[in-house]
Design brief:
The chain has about 80 residues and is α+β, with helices and mostly antiparallel strands. Helices cover about 60% and strands about 20% of the residues. The protein is built from three helices and two strands. The chain has a two-stranded antiparallel sheet with strand order 1-2. It is elongated and about 65 Å long.
Amino acid sequence: MTHFVKDVSRYIEISESTLYPILKRLEVSGCVITYTEQHKNRLRKYYRITDKGIESIRCFLGEWKEIQSIYEYIKGEMEDE
């Protein structure tokens, strides 16, 4: 398992076969860029978030707050029954 997958796995359960297609889609959509560098005589691929990627996260977090509000409303209604 690569170092990147290990880092991400601390927060969500994910495998390389799931993570790398997601990163590829993010790259194609312009949310991340990739570059390569030598590391211990091996060529490594690195990912960097773009301004578009940061804006996408901000948008998602705004939508997430709305979803949480709806969830809390529904949860409260169900508890009152």
